[in-house]
Amino acid sequence: MGYEYLIAGFEDIALSERVQTSEEALLELLDEHLSASDKELLALLRRKNDDEAVFALLEDDAVQDRKAELSLSDEDFRTQLLYEQGLKCKNKFVREWFAYNMDVNNVLAAAVAIKHGMDVQKVIVGDNEVAQELRKGGALGKNARLAALVPDLKEVAEIAEIGNLLDREKRIDALRWQWLEDRTLFEVFNIEAVLAYYLKASILHRWDTLTVEQGEQVFRDLVADMKKGVNL
Fold first, then answer.
1. pLDDT digits (tens, 9 = 90+) for 87-107
2. What angle do CA 28, 204, 193 make, to 5 degrees?
3. Number of separate domains in the chain
4. Nearest to residue 172, comparing CAs of 182, 183, 161?
5. Quick check: is 232 in a domain?
6. Interacting residues of 10 by C-beta distance below 8 A, sequence separation 6+
C-alpha cells in the first residue's frame, strides 16, 4: 500500500532540530491513514518491556522456566521477550530494527560489564550470533567475528566509554538515526518509510522531553540553593 499523500504532508525533520508536530498529533495522523495490518506494525514498534502484552507472556509456565535458566533480571527478561516478538515480525524492516537495537544494546551492556568486572552473561539478552559471541567475554575490539556481525561495533564500544550518560544516549540515537536513513534510502512511499519517520520523530520527541526535565531539575536546584541562602 502506498502512502504518497501521507508522507508528502510530513514535517521535514533533522537530527539537529526540534520537531514541531507533537507525538500525539503524529499518532492521530497515522491512525487515520494506516491500514489495519500496518497499524499492528506501528503498535509493535511502540511496545515497551513493561506493556501488558509483555507481562501477559510471563504467565506461561514454560516462559518462567526459561527465565530461571537464563538468570536474567526481571527487566532484562521482559526486554528479551519484547525483542523476540519483534524478531518474529513478518516485516523485514521491523525485524531488522529490533535486531539492530538488541545488538547495539548488548554491546553496550557487555562493554560496561567488562569495564566493571561484572558477569557478561548476566546482562546479555537474546540468543542470536551477536549475543553468543558477547557471552564468550573478552575484549570487544579483538573479536573479529563480532566485528563482522556488528558493523557499528567500534563506534558503540567507544560510546560505552563516555561518562556523561546524556551524551552517550545522544551518540547512540545518532547511530539509530543513521541506520534508519540507510535502511530507507530507496523506500519512498511505503510503510517502511512511514515507520522510519515515526521512529526518527520519536527520537526527537524523547530529547525534547529530556530537555524539559533537565530544565525543571535546574530550576529545583536553584530554588533549593535560594532556600539555603546561597548568593545566586
1. 999 999 999 999 999 999 999
2. 60
3. 1
4. 161
5. no
6. 197
